[in-house]
Write a structure and sequence with these properties.
Layout (H helix, E strand, L loop, with lengths): L1 H6 L5 H20 L9 H9 L5 H8 L3 H4 L8 H16 L1 H7 L3 H31 L15 H28 L4 H11 L2 H13 L5 H22 L2 E8 L2 E3 L2 E3 L3 E7 L6 H19 L3 H9 L5 H22 L2 H10 L2 E2 L7 H35 L8 H41 L1
Antiparallel strand pairs: 1-4, 1-5, 2-3
Amino acid sequence: MVGSGFQNIFKIPELKKRVLMTLALLIVYRVGVHVPVPGIDSVALASFFAKAKGTLLGLFDMFSGGAFEKLSVFALGIMPYISSSIILQLLTVVVPHLERLSKEGEQGRKKIIQYTRYGTVLLSIIQGFGISIGLESMASPGGAPVVLFPGWGFRLMTVITLTAGTAFIMWLGEQITERGIGNGISLIIFAGIVCRMPNAIANTFKLVSTGEMNVFFVVILLVLMVGVVGVIIFVEQGQRRIPVQYAKRIVGRKMYGGQSTHLPLKINTSGVIPPIFASSIMMFPATIASFIKIEWMQDFAKALTPGSVIYELLFVGLIFFFCYFYTAVTFNPVDVSENMKKHGGYIPGIRPGKRTADYIDRVLTRITLGGAIYVSCVCVLPSVLITQVNVPFYFGGTALLIVVGVAIDTISQIESHMISRHYEGFLKKGGARVKGRF
């Protein structure tokens, strides 16, 4: 169905316009990735990042779609917006004012989005200032400084440039969501990750041609990659369906209810939120420590380098914590149980009310454990491939989860849009025929 649907995308004018708008805005984003921040020696910066591959700085560059390595105006990427939106979403649970806004419908949602934008600018200013300070201490392996003219002028210029770049990316994402197809913010991350694939493929072919990598090893690697993608698609769409029965109700002269349905519980309820939060927490202190030229701080930064045992253990622990924490925040078994009871629904063999809530919570706890193990395995995979197998590119982790998830979501939206447009056209033709008869 997906293949036949794509053949007809450009036959629907509105969908064609949305797809072209999405592609045009993503091209604008990719052009901005190559616009550098003023006052940087690009050669010295490239030399510095050449030795930063596989470190936290290399990981951060991967999330920014290569903009951080070039220190372009989009170097911060969209991560400040994501962090701000996640923080606002979590604060909604504990701050009464935000909780009231979340229940006020469209007006409340607009207010929360406005707060998210303010938070994005604030986080961008803080991160931009930290990056400007760190850049002044950077130098190429040959000793050439990365910053040509250090000082407060450079720092202020960097903060303003990076903050404006993130704000512009945020606007691009909102325009894609409103005028294009799919979720704009997710597609921007998707584009940044996917655009680095040709470089990784070219490096692989180069290693094969020089004899540094075996052809048989590349074939095994390709089979592994296809298998991992298949597992991610399978698990992301996997559900634990709890059967629900609705009792028959008589309202006036009509009888309602009596049907059987199910309550779908996703295996990975929290999506990519746990690895993003875990990465942010791990990146922040280690990145700051890597900029400070103190021996014990440098040792601390090395201990928190991807691939080290301490880093991987802490990373997996944080993923488990956020899987359970975010699931508890976004899914309340008590509310679900009360809504089922209010509409005459019950789980066969389970009493309505507290017993139902406890049963749902027990099932959710068990499948969240499986989801946390799955997310941890996918996120640890890149470190294992790079450090143990010497794979020359980053495969797996949060990036792969985002790419597969966004691809599935975008394809689903395109299909839904095409089905709805086809249904509207059918009704219009039918209406015209009926009107002609009378």
